[in-house]
Amino acid sequence: MLCQPRKQSLAAFCLISLFLLPSSGQAASSVTTERIISLPTFSTSSKDAPASLSGEIQDSAGSGTSLNGDRLLSQEPEGAEGQIALPPSDHDSPVSPVSSAPTIPLPEIHYDITKAPKGVQRMHESLLSAAKSGDMAKMRQAIEMNEMPPILGYEEAGSDPLAALYGMSGDSEGSEILAIMSEILEAGYVIQNKGTPQELYLWPYFADYPLAQLTKSQRVELFRLITAGDYAEMQTLGHYIFYRLGIGPDGTWHYLTAGD
Question: N or C: more exposed end of the chain, with fewer CB within 10 A?
Answer without folding.
Answer: N
